[in-house]
Amino acid sequence: MSKQTAILGGGNFWNLDAVFSEVEGVLAVEAGYAGGWVRDPDREQVCSGQTGHAEVVRVTFESGKVRYSQLLDIFFAIHDPTTVNRQGGDVGPQYRSVIFALSPRQRQVANATIAELEAQHAFNAPIVTTIENAATFWPAESHLQHYFAQHPSMSYCRFVVQPKLDKFHRRFAALSRS
Q: How far apart are the first and last CA of the chain?
C-alpha cells in the first residue's frame, strides 16, 4: 500500500474535512489554504478574497484502500462544481471548486473524471472546477481543524455540513468507516 496525498477545494473546508475524515483508507485530513500569493495566510486574510487562496483540505490516504479516483467521485458528489467562486451562501474566490494536481497522474485522473461527468450530464450546468498545479499548502489555524467534529451543534455544521455528510454516507456506504 502506498501513502498518497490529494489537495481539494470545494467551498468551506469544514465540509470536505468532515466527509473525508469518514472515508475508509484516509489517514489524515487537514484544513488549509492553497493557490494564492500570500505566504502563511490566516482565515481572515483568505476570507477577504484578496489572497488568491482557496480553502482546501489535504487528504492523506492509503491508495490500496481508497483510490484517488474514488476521492474525486466523493468530492464531486458533495459540492456544487458548477458555480464559480461559490458554494451555497459561501461566496468568493476562496470558495472556488479546485483540484490541485500533485502529479501528472492526478491531473490525468482529474481530467478524465470531469470528462466522464460531463459526458454523463451529471450536473445541470457545466463543471467549472479548475485543475491547478500543486501549490504550497498552508495549514489553517488549529481551532479550525476538524471543526465539525468539535462543533456538530453549531448552526452552520447542522444545516450545511451535516447534510453533506449524510449524502456521503448514503451514496458511498461502501467507502465509509461506519
A: 22
Nearest to 93 by CA among 135, 45, 160, 57: 45
What would the CATH number be for the domain defined by 3-175?
Answer: 3.30.1060.10
How many Å apart are CA 18 and CA 26, to the nearest integer?
A: 12
Residue with cell 495566510: 41
In tens, the pLDDT along 33-65 reads 999 999 999 999 999 999 999 999 999 999 999
Q: Residue 143 carries which DSSP code?
A: G
Contact 143, 112 (CB under 8 A): no
Considering only CA atoms, which of 21, 26, 48 is closest in space to residue 36?
48
Q: Please tell me the pTM assigned to this model.
A: 0.95
Residue pointed to by grid coordinates 470531469: 114
